[in-house]
Target: AraC-like DNA-binding protein
Amino acid sequence: MAGGRSPGPAAPGADVPVHISLRTTDVDEAREFCRSLYYGPLRIEPVGDPGRFRFQADVVVLGPITLGEVGYGTDIRVSIAALETAYHVLVPLTGMLRSRHRGAVVLADPTRAVVFRPTGDIEVDWPASCRLISVKVERAALEREVDAALDQRVISPLPLGATFDLVDGPGRTWAAMVRLLLTELREPDALASRPRMAARWRDMVVSGLALTVEHPYGEEPAGLQGPHRPRTVKRALDAMHAEPWRAYTIHDLAALAGVGVRVLQESFRQHVGMPPLTYLRRLRLDAVHAELCRSDPGQVSVSEVAYRYGFTHLGRFAGAYRTRFGETPSQTLRDRR
Model:
């Protein structure tokens, strides 16, 4: 049996892939492994012969994406509450599984993937014959990519389709890219494991998924299409999303956008709905919340994460956090999902 533990949180912008694997016949050990790398309130129950339980997982964490090849050796049922902080795709390599999510029943096999949105309980009937690649993409990363690619506001969570084709079209290419990346990142000396290359692969996985899975943007959906954002606003947004922890001033952002402070503030009021620094604070709060949701309270502290994202006054940070999320940062960390 080979095992590993969930990596501690990396520094923002770090693109060093972390490979964790586990081979076990212990259901509790497999359950804890999946909870630590994916979602806390996750239930795994064998419904086939428990004596044939053979959990095998090779998982790579790379910034906002988590890729893993997983199999159980016996029939199981996986149940989980709303994902909240991520979108998730299952790509079967062998066999067929049945999932129920948001009123939709999807049969996934090597010809068709299943997609889960952040909201709604999930139940998956996973037979012994099914081995698959599991792809978790942080919610903010995918939504930011769709927003940037289409240059329009998007609602959250994205109204994604529940499935996509793996045989033809972009789904085939995306799945092949994910399989290749996972294979490469298992090897410590692979070119893809170098930070600069890993960052490019990471971006291709996220942007490729945004272009593969069905969503209404670009199809003129009623009530969803947002106003076109001018290039000056997009430059400031791109800078903030790339390095939210930086101590930007309004003058810094105006210089990056190539306009004066008053022009930038008015543009943000019209096209974003809030001033630039208010948007930056919200972006930082969302980043802290996402990290606290996935962190182990025994390995990280609230103050450590807050400082990492540019909050130097913990009292004001705690007040702003509670206003936005309805709970304290410590509660989020303790009750992480």
Observations:
- Residues 317 and 323 are 10 Å apart (CA to CA).
- The first helix runs from residue 27 to 37.
